[in-house]
Amino acid sequence: MVVVHEDRDPQGSVWRRWDPHVHFPGTVLNDQFGGLKLTEALRILGERSPQIQVVGVTDYATTASYRGAEAAWNQGAASNIRLLFPNVELRLDVPTSRSRGVNLHLLCPPAQVDGLDKFLSLLEFGFKGKTYRAERQSLIELGQDFSKTAALAEEAALREGTNQFKVSFDQLKERFTLSDWAKKYCLIAVAGGEGDGTSGVRDSDGAFVARRQEIERFAHIVFSGNAKQRSFWLGQGALTRDELGATYNGRKPCLHGSDAHRQDGLGVPDHDRFTWLKGNATFDTLQQACIEPDLRVWIGPEPPVTAQARGRIRSVSVSNSEWFPQQIVPINPGLVAIIGPRGSGKTALADVIAAAAGSVSQFANKQSFLYRAGHLLGPSVATVEWTDDEVTTCELSPPAIGEVADSAPAVRYLSQQFVDYLCASDGMSVELIREIERVVFTSWPVGDRLEATSFRELLDLRLAGARSRQANELVAIKDASERITRERILKSGLEGKRRELGEHNKTLSQLRKEAADLTGKIDKARAARLAEISGALQKREHELQKEDRRVRSLRLLQQEVANARRSDFPRLTARLRDNHIDAALDDGSWENFRVAFVGQVDRVLTAAVREAETSRAAIAGAEAAPGENTPVPLDRVSAAGLATLTVAKLRAERTRLQTLAGIDEQRTKRLVANSDQAARETARIAQIEAEIKEAEAADNKIAELTAMRLERYAAYFDALLEEERNLNELYAPLARILAEGGNTVSKLRFSVKRSIDVDAWAARGEELLDLRKEGAFRGRGELARVAKVELVDAWKGGDGATAAEAIRQFAVDHSAGLRRQSLTDASNLEAYREWELDVASWMYSADHVTLNYSLEYDGLDIQRLSPGLRGIVLLLLYLAVDREETVPLIIDQPEENLDPESVYSELVKLFRQASDRRQVIMVTHNANLVVNTEVDQVIVASCGALEAGRLPALRYLSGGLEDSQVRDAVCQILEGGEEAFRDRARRLRLRW
User: Fold this and answer.
1) Is 12 helix (H, G, I), strand (E, B) or coil?
2) Strand arrangement, sheet containing 748-756
3) Are the CB atoms for 561 and 597 separated by under 8 Å?
4) Is 90 exceeded by the pLDDT of residue 59?
5) CATH topology for 309-420+887-987?
6) Number of Cβ atoms within 10 Å of the Cβ of 183
7) Given this structure, which CATH class describes domain 15-123+167-303?
8) Could you give the 3-state DSSP secondary structure of residue 268?
């Protein structure tokens, strides 16, 4: 019975274990298998773990071992092995440092084994003037001739002849170059070790370097399991890719086999250096490995982790449908391309996969297949099987329309309509901004996110200190401006106060003269005494009012202390606790944050109130009760003594003297009124003198406050710089990712810039000016023009000191001009003072200077980009930046809006890198995206005949690029497909 072996896999390129270098019982040289039968050797090899799916059957200068193994295999031996191919080992006439010929291997597809035999027959070896060929009978003759034993048994002669047969490298190279068959089908592998490989081709003076390089340049494959050699041949070691291309004709895959010559070595390479190739169990996979050795070849105990990645789609199917007759469409866990002619069902498959995987946005998308064909889908149910054996389903009938996609979808589906919606020409959508911020957030290391769950939350946490400082500085600037204005108002009113003081002194003098006139008819001595008593009384009453104000102020202070303890202090502690909940302090710790006065304020205030009340009582004295005896005369008390008497005694003495003087009741009333008015004038004079003193010190105070305001102004800009530093730190991980992504990705960057709304600042200033008056700011817009010349540079790029100096110089240069263009008449003092305060608050305001962060592409803010360029930005974010999201990414026509060079030079690398993190499924018309990304699976869509009222049958052929049927489809369907394959071959210096 002949067993038929299936050599293609519709799931495309998956990791399979190969053993490309295995000898079997009967191998010409070094056969240590004893009596082991060939079928038993195949069984042992087929039962090795991890399972070996492809075997390179090796023998010296002959395909006989391969032919024998193939026959047994076709009869059912080791049926779990999916492919055997011939590997003919030759020894070159180039010796190694260990005096052994360099081993070189010829590999070809199984169907070309006859061609390999023909090619071997072209190889010659000369001995004693006779020429021998790499054929069984010729090798036997060489063995007999060399041993000088014509009767030597054939097998012994074959071994001797094969051992002596050395192939001239130059001859081999010439024969290969002249053979169309060899160039099309044959791969050359060379041993890389020191004993029998090119590493051993050397001597002390380097005379064999050129020879070694020529051999390695000629080879397609290096047989070596050494990690350093693998890195070197991938262009990750001493030489770059370009240098490898110039010297060695490109990168080479390193393969490692068991090189078994005995039973226990079958399929057991040293140190578990198993060879894994990604692709079908076909020889084409080995050829593809020569094209992309870093993507297709791995040496190690296990294949790369992506092969077993969880959370990837394994297959999709649709039940209850005539339009989807295929039972199951397998999906590769890596990078998948869906291709096909227009209307063949490419997007339909993407819609179905996304729906079954958990995305429902396409049900509401009027351009999607599921929406447009909804009334024809009937009871169809789509099912996705995942790599972790989970199964998800979705009914494709119309009731699903209108559902909203989940906030944490199981897949990310970028349909053309979704991208168009996010990147619409009528402005940035909120969804796009959120999506950009989400991707930026994922670029920040998880351990440094302060447990924030969103970009905005992380931003607020990192910028809280700087923004709080900015707000505080703006309040301090405004407060300083108000205080400066008050001081200037005091200074501007100094002369008026002095005049007012003179007027009040004049009034007081007149009152004293009037008092003298009222007492003019009495005894002069008594009148003088009465005046003396009245003057002393006025002073003591003034002192009494001061003590009254002091007592009142102390009582109010006591109330405020009580209010602070009862309300203000607890509220401050509560606000601290609310604002810093992430501090995670317990209740006991927060007790230490209770605010209290540092000193014994109660004792201080109680003592002060007691002392003030005592002092007041001592000044006021006790009023005489009605009917009491006339108070003791104070005739003998001196003027100095009168100043210490109580108000009550002085009032009583004044009344007594008025009575003795015989002043009538009318005069007495006038004297009392005169005395009261004189007391008020005295108090006002004292107040004006204090104001004059304060106004005389205004210049120093203004200078002090101006300096403080400039410090706060500078501090605001320094706080902006602090926020800018924090933002740059926030984007640092993203910047590193973008810098590694290539030219197109590096065009994408986040910028942090100061935003200067100079027009808004100038507009507020113009509201305070008469723009019709002559001056520097006459006419609307002139203030903004001057500010742009004198201030904007400092606001935009300066530090705090620079910005403060600029606004100071602006004030010096333009304060007088601003006053000349004031909207308020200077004669209206109260209104003018309010205007000055408004001008100061406006001029030194800084809230028009803020920080903006934005995403830029090629130097343009994303808001200024066309919808197409925004789509590019979104694609770059998903492919290059979004390294945390691992759900499958389905993209419909990612090449839209990209020029061919961008597709080739940038997206190729990004798609490959993204597929390491997540499964990527793309619908595409671009051959470069399929060929140059070395997709793991191509799904070719086609549809049946169209009939009214029903959907055409959709069918899908799938496989890897190593599958010739798939390659043909790529060339036929995609524009430039064949040229893409040829171009890649030229770039990689391949000969087929």
Assistant:
1) coil
2) 748-756, 849-857, 860-861
3) yes
4) yes
5) Rossmann fold (3.40.50)
6) 12
7) alpha beta
8) coil
